[in-house]
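Sample log: tRNA-specific 2-thiouridylase MnmA.
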Amino acid sequence: MRVLAAMSGGVDSAVAAALAVDAGHDVTGVHLALSQNRQTLRSGSRGCCSVEDSHDARRVADELGIPFYVWDLADRFTEDVVDDFVAEYAAGRTPNPCLRCNEKIKFSAVLDRAMALGFDAVVTGHHARLEDGELRRSVDAAKDQSYVLGVLTPEQLAAAMFPLGSMTKDRVREIAAERGFAVAAKPDSHDICFIPDGDTRGFLARRLGSLPGPVVDAGTGQQVGEHDGTYGFTVGQRKGLGVSVGDQRPRYVLGIEPVTRTVTVGTADLAGVPAVRTGVPTWTGAVPELPFAAQVQVRAHAAPVDCRVHAGDGGGLLVEFAEEQRGVAPGQSAVLYEADPVRGDRVLGQAAVAMAVERSGAVGQ
């Protein structure tokens, strides 16, 4: 098969490309230039897509003896990922830019171009498994990336290859070291790639400016603080609230209202929600018949919980948790996994959280 290897410059994509070569495929490497300021070198494990990463990817391609190209997708990335990220926070939601990048860039723009150029598949270094066309969790639970791939369609998965899903990250580094790749010990990238200093609030403040408003305590209805912008908060947040309350009990962000610029906080006993309503879902395979039992993961690093999935409003879903969940923010992706204890690592699909259902609200039957 003619395979396009997406090479970020990290150890995972390097080993994925190498395994594709070992499997006998006709492999071409491509590095995605996503940053509009690529000359800025990454700092330790923060950031990616720098000129340094491009050079690392090229060195690996040279060692593998495969053609290598750089595709400039910076404008597309800015529009579909960065601008979307800013707009979502401005609207009081909490997006996942890695999921959006997979949806809009790696498995839309790149895959579409690859197919147009006559490639049969795109191979990436994601830690997830594909078995008989079904997307599953990686065997390395600590590195599993199936959550951010839950947005992919059956057609996209049919043209994807994830050769690292059956091995641990330690084994990936061992393979890289055995081959003499300089990236064998390169740190993993962390945080948001286009915010290399890790200061999300500062990044958003530079984009959106100062938009001050009150912080209100849900229990008393009293203003307990002020803020410079609702974009500096996410539902479930505990630290950095800047509030002053008399009882000293920890407060959590319960809600964000961008129109009135109000951030509502409350104690832990008020933070749980029994269910969420979502937007229109995408499915990785056949559309399941509603309602059905499943497991749901509402954040990239959250533990999956049992749930029941019902038809919701406007083509969306109503996801009812077996136990109340905290920190479920609008804009996050609710990724659904099969409930079967043997096959519970299979991804069914995902939908963006639209709103939490209040405790007194009606839940599906």
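Observation: The chain has seven helices and 18 strands.
Observation: Confidence is low (pLDDT under 50) at residues 41-46, 361-365.
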